[in-house]
Amino acid sequence: MQPAPASGPELPAAVGATYARAERHGFMLSCEPAVGRLLATLAASVPAGGRILEMGTGIGVGTSWIVHGVGARDDVQVVTVDLDEQASAIAREASWPAWVTLRVGDVLAVLDELGRFDLIFADAQGGKWTGLDRTIAALRPGGLLLVDDMTPPRWMDDAHERHTARVRATLLSHPDLVSSELACGSGMILCARRRAPR
Ligand SMILES: C[S@@+](CC[C@H](N)C(=O)[O-])C[C@H]1O[C@@H](n2cnc3c(N)ncnc32)[C@H](O)[C@@H]1O
Fold this sequence. Notes:
Bound molecules: S-adenosylmethionine
Shape: globular
Oligomer: single chain
Strand order of the largest sheet: 3-2-1-4-5-7-6
Distance between the termini: 41 Å
Structural class: alpha/beta
């Protein structure tokens, strides 16, 4: 969660345009490039018929990294949900592939109807600070869960620090997950949901 370059040779053009849109609208919560680049890498690896969920669209920066990762495939579904109507409206101003669905609402209120996913970027308080167990349950076997902002430069308040510590403890000790901490950018945890033994 820090200002990112709006352009530069290291950013795909569409991603750079989305950072620029976020900057124009004063939206400061977009994922940083180190997180986005990993997100794109994971999105590129989803299996045929893959499904990707982003919890918290913001202005669409994370979504644009996911779209960059999926590339020219058209067998993948991407769903991104945000409860902030204004942010979602700005995100919808961009042109997205037909396989991207932007929804407005509390992601936890719609999670059950969304189904299960090969990749989830849990980047909203709903689904991360609250309802994390439901987010984990929404992973397909072998599915990947990414969270960022685990080691931010400063805590907003005590609750922020407490919630983050609880998320970390849950992800690192969950019996259905194999998790790894990545000391990169704002601090990430990447988790894979275990497959059932054959
Ligand atoms: C960190 S920003 C998301 C940034 C975006 N993923 C990106 O990488 O550009 C968090 C967003 O989550 C949204 N949010 C918070 N609680 C939510 C909930 N329960 N359901 C859906 N969105 C939520 C906020 O409105 C905010 O736009």
